[in-house]
């Protein structure tokens, strides 16, 4: 594995819109940050580090919180920052849920690339592992194995949609082109037969055809697919966003079957715990 320098963004940018779950309008301004600062959300006067130990809910999205202040649906922005190798950033949020935008991380990526990436003077921190970790939750499985680069293999399986059984492997790292071109455009998705039940339950108040790919089995979509097996690519996008909560650049192989935010976060916490235990043993 090659060493790399930490990076931040070269200027600030702002995006606004509605939250997919709350339907409320919010605004996010991302600012440059100094070396070793990490990625930190700022809600009013409260700062919430983008770390796995600050996750308070994973039922519908990834929610961070501290001292009664929370910020939800952080995974797409964190995925964009991680995918573009932005180690340090101040994320100023007005509202409690990040805007869904078009349902992907592409709008965030476009803004990051528009303001530019700034190299910094300290070496980047890489999260490496020495042994395999596995977590099983029902039909979902996550495995992390030692590797010299960051790669993710995701398999999607759906009880009501056998045609959606797919596997994609993405190799990520210093070169961000693969993430930007093949992962970041992938949108949040839902099945047509589930939409009415979701709305009746009071969820997805901000969901629309502008920010969700609606799938009608076996092969009908509300709009043309942006990337091959877009639903599977979006699961990789979410995994990258949730693994960004390791607060370092991932450097291992992740294999996930039927992943979701709950098991993704459980894996991040398990890896952090093992890392802490290894450090204590060395000391």
> What does the main sheet amount to?
6 strands, mixed
Alpha-carbon distance between the termini? 25 Å
Structural shape: globular
Average pLDDT reading: 95
What percentage of the residues does DSSP assign to strands (E)? 25-35%
Order of helices and strands: EEEEEEEEHEHEEEEEEHEHEEHEH
- List low-pLDDT spans: none
Task: Provide the gyration radius in Å.
Answer: 18 Å
Textual characterization of the structure:
The structure is a single chain. The protein has 283 residues and is α+β, with helices and mostly antiparallel strands. 25% of the residues lie in helices and 35% in strands. It has six helices and 19 strands. Strands 11, 12, 13, 14, 15 and 19 form a six-stranded mixed beta sheet that branches. Helix 1 packs across helix 2. 39% of the residues are buried. The model has no long low-confidence stretch (mean pLDDT 95).
Strand and helix layout:
Blueprint: E1 5-9, E2 13-18, E3 25-32, E4 39-43, E5 46-49, E6 55-57, E7 63-66, E8 69-72, H1 75-83, E9 89-94, H2 106-115, E10 117-123, E11 126-128, E12 133-137, E13 140-146, E14 150-156, E15 166-172, H3 177-183, E16 189-191, H4 192-200, E17 213-216, E18 220-221, H5 230-243, E19 249-257, H6 261-282
Parallel strand pairs: 4-9, 11-19, 14-19, 16-17
Antiparallel strand pairs: 1-10, 2-3, 3-9, 4-5, 6-7, 7-8, 12-13, 13-19, 14-15, 17-18
Helix pairs in contact: 1-2, 1-5, 5-6
């Amino acid at each position: 594995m090659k060493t790399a320098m930490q990076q931040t963004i070269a200027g600030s940018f702002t995006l606004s819109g509605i939250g997919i779950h709350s339907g409320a309008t919010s605004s996010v301004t991302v600012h440059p940050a100094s070396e070793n600062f990490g990625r930190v959300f700022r809600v009013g006067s409260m700062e919430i580090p983008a770390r796995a130990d600050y996750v308070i809910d994973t039922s519908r999205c990834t929610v961070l919180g501290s001292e009664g202040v929370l910020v939800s649906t952080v995974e797409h922005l964190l995925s964009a920052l991680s995918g573009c190798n932005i180690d340090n950033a101040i994320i100023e949020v007005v509202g409690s849920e990040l805007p869904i935008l078009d349902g992907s991380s592409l709008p965030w990526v476009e803004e990051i690339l528009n303001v530019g990436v700034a190299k910094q003077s300290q070496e980047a921190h890489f999260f490496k592992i020495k042994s395999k970790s596995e977590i099983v939750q029902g039909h979902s499985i996550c495995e992390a194995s030692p590797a010299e680069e960051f790669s993710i293999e995701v398999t999607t399986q759906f009880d009501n949609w056998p045609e959606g059984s797919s596997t994609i492997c993405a190799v990520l790292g210093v070169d961000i082109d693969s993430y930007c071109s093949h992962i970041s455009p992938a949108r949040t998705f839902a099945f047509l037969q589930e939409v009415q039940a979701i709305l009746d339950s009071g969820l997805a108040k901000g969901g629309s055809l502008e920010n969700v790919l609606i799938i009608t089995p076996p092969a009908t979509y509300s709009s043309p697919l942006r990337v091959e097996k877009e639903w599977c690519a979006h699961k990789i996008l979410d995994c990258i966003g949730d693994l960004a909560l390791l607060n370092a650049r991932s450097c291992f192989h992740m294999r996930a079957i039927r992943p979701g935010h709950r098991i993704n976060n459980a894996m991040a916490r398990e890896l952090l715990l093992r890392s802490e235990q290894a450090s204590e043993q060395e000391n």
